[in-house]
Amino acid sequence: MVWSLIVSRNFASVLLQQDNRLDQPGSGSLTYLYFEMEEAANASISEPLDLVKLALGERVFIKLRGDRTVSGVLHAYDAHMNLVLSQVEEAVHIVDVTEDGQAMPLRVDRRQMEMLFVRGDGVILISPQQQ
Amino acid sequence: MSASPEPQGGGPPGGSPGDFLKNIVGKRVKVRIGNGIDYHGLLTCLDGYMNVALEDTEEWSKGKVTARYGDCFLRGNNVLYISALEEI
Amino acid sequence: MLIFSFFKTLTDQVITVELKNDLSITGTLKSVDQFLNIRLDGISVENPERHPHMMAVKNCFIRGSVVRYVKMQARSVDTNLLEDATRRGELGGHLSPSDQCRGLKM
User: Fold this and answer.
1) What's the pTM value of the predicted model, to 2 decimals?
2) What sequence ranges are listed for the domain Sm (chain A) (predicted)?
């Protein structure tokens, strides 16, 4: 017989388990109480947006359309991936082409901005920055 | 009308695209986005917009790894397809 | 809705709107709507010589969908308030998290 008891909707489910197979003769039933850690981990990221939620207040790396990348501290986002960031560095990756069509080495234009709103439709990827 | 044949002996499970997406959560997958860049990683979860969360992600471009991300979120509108890199 | 509210707190502040065609317009934010359309007053453009047609324009309405970035001063933003509001899940647009799962009944 297994009873499961949801203690916290979002973080962990505690399983109270009475496993009859493990009952020792004469010892009464054994009751096991354990946290399902895997369940807890999955509960914290149950939908992709939770990954972004966990990055609030942290520095994130963002890839945008148009060969742009942005790094900044994430303060707000919504379901469209509109973002508000501070301490932002934007990099534009430019491949110049010579007159005879040869690609020049990659050039990167960088800009700093103190507070920036990024419109969500340009977002490709968001990653918490490993530092 | 006869039912469509079941896949024989240990082949990939049949079913709807939704079943496929359900089956690949927790597996290593390849996500191709619009501009031909691929993301290989462990699929943490996905939603109805095809927004995708990956772990241990490699970014592949023109046959080379161009970046690595511990966790990464891909905005669904950019996703062309998701393919499993291991048995499902 | 969260980002809409955020922009409403910026009214009468000077902001710079960078458009997807690389045009950058600085001006005073007069109003914003739910689509993040923006009305700017007293505008100037970043490279007036490259955009001579903008010289005489004093105010403008910018369609939200053509915006790439909006730059603003850090001191006009309460970042803690923003993070709390975001965490509380006033998630934007017109969608609740459960709506977002529609079409993927698995």
Assistant:
1) 0.78
2) 47-131
